[in-house]
Design a protein that fits this description.
The protein is of the alpha+beta class. Among the domains are: about 110 residues, Ku70, Chain: A, Domain 2, CATH 2.40.290; about 70 residues, no CATH class. About 25% of the residues lie in helices and about 25% in strands. It contains six helices and ten strands; from the N terminus they run ββββαβββαβββαααα. A hairpin with a 2-residue loop joins strand 1 and strand 2. Helix 4 packs parallel to helix 6. It is extended, with a radius of gyration of 27 Å.
């Protein structure tokens, strides 16, 4: 079943406009989800907003956003006031500028979405923008209201459509230098150690397969759920042993042992 379109609007570049549809490129529908249950009654436990002072439940109609300007002093905002701030980018992806497609570091990428023309009339204009971006190696930067906030987005051509990435906000991305300085070393590794490490990496290299990103925890949870449905007892999962903190050996010995282990025929 094709995923349901969750956003429709317009793609705009100068005076060129076309209707487009947006679908999340990732899904969490298969993830095992748990509810909080009352152990005694087997009923679900529900979350409820309560007044922090009176302790009484607050009706949904009485809940508003508030910005704290002082202790226990808030400026109140209605949902309409917040929505109006990003009104222009609510239904239009207006490409403001272009950048080299490979110039944005991976750390800025947030959530991917598939962008496609929404009707036959829009296919030509959409295709012209996409193909021109592809031939020039450019990505489009725009702004769009998504997930209740206005976000910078990056548009990249992909096959017959585009991938729209929401980008992280500037205050979310940390400067790596203070952290990477801890890993900096002026000493170069021995030539033999470097050669052995390249050989070890070569033995572990395989073509990319989406199954490499499978979640074994989810698979095990599905097995346990199936067993519980049938009333069977589940075996306790054996946790892997943690290496001892004092188990430190010479890097050359570690490389030799690793390569030797890879040369041995594997059982089964």
């Amino acid at each position: 079943m094709a995923p349901r379109v969750f956003w429709k609007g317009y793609l705009k570049l100068s005076l060129v406009t076309c209707r487009v549809a947006l679908v999340p490129a990732i899904s969490e529908n298969e993830r095992v989800r748990f509810h909080n249950i009352n152990r005694k009654t087997k009923n679900r436990v529900l979350n409820q907003y309560v007044d922090s002072v009176s302790g009484k439940p607050v009706d949904e109609d009485d809940q508003v956003k508030g910005y704290e300007r002082g202790e226990n002093d808030y400026v109140l905002f209605e949902d309409e006031e917040i929505a109006d701030v990003g009104l222009e980018s609510t239904r239009t992806i207006d490409i403001e500028t272009f950048v080299p497609a490979n110039s944005i570091g991976w750390i800025w990428y947030d959530r991917p979405h598939f962008l496609t023309p929404d009707d036959a009339v829009s296919e030509e204009a959409f295709g012209v923008i996409r193909d021109a971006m592809d031939k020039t190696g450019k990505g489009g930067i725009a702004r769009l209201v998504m997930y209740r906030r206005e976000r910078a987005v990056l548009l990249l051509p992909k096959d017959k459509g585009m991938v729209l990435w929401t980008l992280r906000y500037g205050d979310e991305v940390r400067d790596a230098d203070p952290y990477f300085k801890l890993a900096d070393t002026s000493e170069k590794p021995e030539a033999k150690a470097a050669t052995m490490m390249k050989s070890l990496i070569g033995k572990y290299t395989k073509p990319w397969d989406p199954e490499m990103a499978d979640d074994p925890v989810q698979d095990k949870l599905h097995e346990i759920i199936a067993a519980k449905k049938k009333g069977r007892k589940t075996a306790k999962v054996k946790k892997p042993e943690q290496p001892a903190e004092s188990n430190v050996i010479n890097i050359m010995d570690a490389l030799r042992n690793s390569l030797a282990a890879e040369r041995k025929p594997k059982k089964g």
